[in-house]
Specification:
homotrimer, alpha+beta, Jelly Rolls, five-stranded antiparallel β-sheet, three-stranded antiparallel β-sheet, 8 strands
Chain lengths: ~130, ~130, ~130
């Protein structure tokens, strides 16, 4: 089972960063071209998701909607003050699973893989394994 | 590793469609009876989920709640006008993982697998692999 | 492929219970120390998530936020009256995937695994398999 880790630098409080190219580079360097790829985010105020990549406004619209959905004004007790970010981490989930076929990610026509920053900017990591 | 793809036709704007039987048919035809099954949705305004199948009102109640949770009136910039559908795609996730034992899906008593349409009706696909 | 099932007893209507130690005990007893671990929740009003474990207020803050996000007063038709719990089950997802390396779960510094009870207290089960 091949595996690896790569880094993602985020600059905004909340943003979706297209990491599809980074994932493809990792797989290419490791010589993996067939299997089931799992990406894992080891952070508690971040996530990984798959969504549209053609129009960059989709990712900013998604962040705009999330900031409307998540309550920021509740009497949260966690002293770091980032409870809304923790809620988003659980709603998005820590991992994504994608099929790999003939050296290419079997993503849909419009799909890209995004690292989800919910409490940035920070230096983040993504672990992966290919089964 | 066995794999396949099947089609799902949706007819409503937003709906949950029970695909448990389709998944079982695929596995039966492929002769797979043991392993870890991954279902992957290649669309950016759809998802896959597992929820109650006994009472059909659960799936309509879930859609009713989602339409209340997701904001539709924000100043979204994505010109296709379906940003709320993209948000739901990320909240539900593109894949589901289910165990397969002695030729049967190891689902709980009340669990069924649903294809989640968030911007239909459309012709959709589901990819699967069994590890 | 090694596998198992363990029980979780919940006592509150909605709560996150740290099951990291239970998962580690299961893997230790089964002698599994390398691979990709999948945890599966077979219930339709519960889930599994990964989030911060250092400060116990994070898990109560997450529950507080979810109860604010999910509508409870819609004209739901499901007669059991627990439609909000079913919505949360789908938003959190039925499974989590975690890497296992040298006998240790490859979780981030602050990450713990939580069983999510959304309609308790109940007696619940978690299935696992390690690939």
């Amino acid at each position: 089972m091949q595996k690896g880790t790569f880094s993602v630098t985020t600059t905004k409080y909340m943003e979706l960063i297209d990491i599809t190219g980074m994932v493809e580079d990792e797989l290419h360097l490791a010589g993996v071209d067939e299997g089931v790829l799992v990406l894992f985010n080891p952070h508690t105020t971040a996530g990984i998701t798959i969504n549209e990549g053609a129009d960059p406004t989709v990712r900013t619209d998604v962040i705009m909607a999330l900031r409307e959905i998540i309550p920021f004004e509740l009497p949260f007790r966690h002293m770091e003050g980032n409870s809304p970010s923790h809620v988003l981490a659980s709603l998005f989930g820590a991992s994504e699973t994608i099929f790999l076929e003939n050296g290419r990610l079997q993503l849909g026509t419009w799909q890209k893989i995004y690292f989800c920053e919910f409490d940035g900017g920070r230096s983040r990591k993504v672990h992966w394994r290919c089964i």
